[in-house]
Every structure is written in structure tokens, then in C-alpha cells.
TrEMBL record, chain A:
It is found in: Cell membrane. It comes from Streptomyces roseolus. It is a multi-pass membrane protein. Residues 78-268 form the ABC transmembrane type-1 domain. This is Carbohydrate ABC transporter permease. The chain crosses the membrane at residues 12-38, 82-103, 115-138, 150-172, 193-214, 249-268.
Amino acid sequence: MEGPRSSRRRLPVGGALTYLSLIVASAVVLIPLAVVFLTSLKTSEEVGSGGALSLPGNWFNFENYVTAFNDGKMLTAFGNTAFILVFSIGGTVIIGSMTAYAVDRFDFRGKKLVMAGFLIATLVPSVTTQVATFQVINSFSLVDTRWAPILLYMGTDIVSVYIFLQFIRGIPVSLDEAARLDGANAFTIYRKIIFPLLKPAIATVVIIKGITTYNDFYIPFLYMHSEDLGTISTALFRFKGPFGAHWEAISAGAILVIVPTLVVFLLLQRWIYNGFAQGATK
Amino acid sequence: MTGRSSTDKAEADTLGRRSRPAGRRRGPTAGRTRSWRDSPLRRITPWLFLAAPLALLITFTYVPVASMISYSFTDWDGVSPDREYVGFDNYVRIFTRPEFFRVFFVSGYYLAASVVQIAVALYFAVILSFNLRFRSFFKGILFFPYLINGVAIGFVFLYFFQDGGTLDSVLAWLGVTSDHPWLGDPTSANVSLAGVSVWRFTGLNFVLFLGAIQSIPGELYEAAELDGAGKWKQFRHIIAPSIKPVISLSAILAISGSLSVFEIPYIMTGGATGTQTFVIQTIKLAFQFNKTGLASAAAVVLLLIILLITWIQRRLVPDDKVDLV
């Protein structure tokens, strides 16, 4: 991102206003989050008596986190989310790259039809079909299991197919042919040559898929009702009931859920920007 | 993201017409030229790779669309084995009962919010394409909300709009006393919720715009400066045209997004105080009131509206970069 090109232009005079607008925007983003962080460190008396912007008496009061983590069943929630993440990301990567390989490297009858099938599917937002999708999942008796979201995340990810397709076109066919002369079959070529060379695209798909799956509320909410099947989204949503107006516990829960995202973001910033830019415009 | 350059395209074309060294193949028809191409194994190989993806695609996209259309003409409750064909009754109900139709007005708030969102994102994308101090820092801050879990955002903003919550405290701190119950009446509740969606989604638009602006070659600006073009002219004649496709994409995402808003209002208000959206209503119809037939009809209407919008957008801004295979 910070290539030589970014230094080509300097901001014109009048930069003060520009910086002011950036500072205001940062405040708008940060203040709601910062207040929730402050609240998560307060005792329930402090929340009741002080204003939202008051500071906690003890900056190391992590009691609310303990409450949120234990009573909110956050450990189970992180476990379920991790389980779903591993399978749906793994499945998406394998399925997406296989589709891209088959479509780009082979000429076969029906290829146009297959591509049209994937293209038209991008036009159908999954929120619109959920009533009927529920019946499909129900007919497999998968409602209220972790396989329901896994299948749905794998089965509807057309964006990743496009990311792989764009990338696979850049891999020279001569590599395939050399391998074929050495006696490799199509599957070996896919596994030993194409798949390893797809690494950058795989990284993109893993990041986009990982963040959207981690944050998804709609699908786990509809398909996994049991309390011990909560994902981080639905487990956090359940805070609304038992914790009611206990903002210090709810805030701690929210921060617990946000922190992993923040860490991943800080570590992978550059790839995340590119990933989302690529994913969204496909 | 900005489409493939012409060299990519040329490369893809040659890849498409790749000739494979024939002969020297082991196989049933070895010896004939193009043997591999014609062998039955070669013919089924792509289908072996496509079997799982196509099965998933059909099961989770095409079967639901087809069955949704068929449910929409019945009075099915989603559970009982029998259902009755009722013709267009469900559709008539959706379009004639005001309480079903009201949800479309709620989308209006989100649509207005997306205009704000796109404008704000564009402003910051232009600013941050200059070489500024703390550029990456500001970029990170503006984008980060997009990555946060929706439920967490819901709670953050529930507290934000509480009586004596963040917003009231900030206003008091700025010297404004406010007693307004922000989520208390339909108009201010919808405006508040739409504001949350601006907060949440501006970052994505911003990153898309920024990427498009940065892919403009620097020489263009230099040439423009030599010709005496000011900053505004540079924006109008260089930046604006080159990000037009991304803006049009954002517009269409904004429209279909405003029709399918679900998470934030569901988490924050549960659809109370006039904040019920189309998706919340459909979900309630289907899963609380067991009116699967009616809910399916509503979903078909939503799908048709979204397809219509997509079609109009494609006609208005022809995408010359559609290159599937």
C-alpha cells in the first residue's frame, strides 16, 4: 500500500481542515467503543451513579470479564465458532479452488452453463431464500447442529470461486503440461501444482471468509437454537436476557468478542484491506 | 479488483486456446492426435472436480429459490404435511395490507443513510489518497468498524443511545443538554439505527474507493498539473471517471443492502417502535407465526425487487469488464 506512488503527492495548503475532519471521524469511530471499554471495567454501582464518560475507579477490575466469560458461556461459544470456522473455511478453499481449476483448465460441454449457474447465484442474496433454505436443512435433519452453518457457508460462497478463478488464470498452463508429460493426472496436477501456487488467493479467501463467518449472526441465530451450540454472535446476543440492564457485563462481553478481531486486524492489516477490496468487487 | 488489464486479458485468451502437445499419450486411443482431449477420462475429469461444488450450489441456491416460489402460492405453515394452493392470495395480501407494506418505508431511512455513507467514504478516500501524516492510522480507524461483530455493534450502540448513555454524555460535555429518548419514537429510532449502519459500513466503501483511486497512474496527475489543472479539476476529470465503476457498485450494494437490513435493528430494538424491516418481518412470519407461504411470497417480492435493481444498474452503467471465462 505504502508504495513509492503514495509519496507522489503532497496535501495542498489548507491541510488543517483536512486533519480536523480526520480527527472528528476518528472520534466518532472511537468514542462509542472507548465508552463500552470503560464501562466494562466499572462496578455496577459505578455504572449506576456515574455518567457514561466517567472513568472506572479501578482500571484493573476484570470481574465483569470473568462474569461475562463464565455466565455467558463464552468458552463454548469460542469453541463452536472455531469448529465452524475450521470446517467452513477448509471446505470453501477446497471447493472454490476445485471449481476454479475445473472451469479454467478444461474445455467441456456444459461449461458455459456451469459458469452461468455460478454467476446467476451471485444475484440471489441469501437473506431472501432463507425461508426455503431452512426447509432444505430441515429435510437433512441438520437443524440445530453445527453442520447446518458449515454447509451453508461452504455452499453459497461464490465470491471465493471468483477470487480463485481470477488467480488461476495467471498460473501458466505450461506448468500443467510439463507435469502431464511426466505422467501426472489431473488430480495430481491440482494438488501438487495448482493448489500450492494459489497461496495468495487462499490467504485472501481465508481472511474474508474467516472474518465474515466469525461475525455472522443470521445463520447461527436461525439454525442453532440450543444454548450449548451458541457461536460468539448468538452467545453474545443472549446477554440481552439474563444481564438485562447490567451494562458492565454486556460491555465486557462485547469487548471479549471485539478483541480477537482487533488483534487479527492489527497483525494482517495490509492483506485485510486487499482481501475485502478484491472480494467485494467480484 | 479494477478488472484485469488488457495484458491479463490477452493472456487469458491465449490460455483459452492453448494447444496441448498431443500424441505420446498413454491411454485407450494413444497414437491418434489429440488423444487426451478425446479420451472418456478427460471428458469426465472436470465433472469430478465440479461434483461437490455443483451439488452445494444446487442444494443451497437453486432448490431454495424454486421451492420458495412454489411455497409462495400455498398457505403452508412450514410443519404440517398438507398445504393448499391459494394462487396469488399471499401476494395480494402483501401489497394490500398496509402493515406489510410499511417495511418498505423503513428501507427509505437506510437508503438515505447509504447516500451519506458513500459521500463520507468518498471524501475520506480522496483525502487519504494524498500523502498525509498518520495516513495508515486514520485508514485503519475508518475501516475497523466494518470488521466488528454485528451483535457487539448492536450493544455498543444500545448503550450509545441510552438515557444518560454515551450520546447524552458527549452532548452534555459539549454543553448541550438532551432529554431525547433516541430510540423512543419511530422517526428518531430509525434515524438512529440508520446512523449505526453508516458508522458500520462507511469503512468498506472507503477502502474500495481508496483502492480505485490508488490504481490511477501518478503520471496522469503530473500531466494534469503541467496543463494547469487545479485540485478540483483533477478530481473531476481524473479521479471521478476512474472510480465510476466502484461507485456504481457501491450504489447497488447500498440499495439491495437497505432492503435486506436485519441485524442491527433486530439486535437493538427487535423491530419495535416502527423499526421493523422487510427481513425481520419475513423471519417473524416464517419462524414465529409459521406462515411459511406468506413469508415465501414476501421473500419472492424482495428477490424480484433486488433483481430488478441489479438489471437497471447493469443497463445504466454497462460493465465492460464482465469476463467469465
